[in-house]
Amino acid sequence: MHAVISTSALPLFLGALLSDWAYSRSFQTQWINFSSWLIAGALVLTGLALLGALVGGPRRRGGWVHLLLLLATFVLGFINALVHARDAAATMPTGLVLSALVLVLAAVAAGMGLAGWRRRAIA
């Protein structure tokens, strides 16, 4: 279950990055609203994955790295949410850069979560 929750935030962070990119091209403020909601949903799922990693994850091999990646994803995602709470014009380019960084962190954390799940399934 942890691997599923850990990877579920990835499409939401990707959607936020794409919404930020769409705003940077069109300057339609609704794209920033979409991005803010996607980031909020992704933070909920990342928080659940972080909680799951705290409860059962650190004991396995690579668990601490996975936990720290989830924590970094959550903290940078929260900062990104605060940046997106500002006026739409004030979010660029910081919001776009943060969205890209958070997406990369989320992808690495999801990959580690899936790798841990696969190791347990094989063993």
TrEMBL record:
<feature type="transmembrane region" description="Helical">
    <location>
        <begin position="95"/>
        <end position="117"/>
    </location>
</feature>
<feature type="transmembrane region" description="Helical">
    <location>
        <begin position="34"/>
        <end position="56"/>
    </location>
</feature>
<protein>
    <submittedName>
        <fullName>Putative membrane protein</fullName>
    </submittedName>
</protein>
<keyword id="KW-0472">Membrane</keyword>
<keyword id="KW-1133">Transmembrane helix</keyword>
<feature type="transmembrane region" description="Helical">
    <location>
        <begin position="63"/>
        <end position="83"/>
    </location>
</feature>
<keyword id="KW-0812">Transmembrane</keyword>
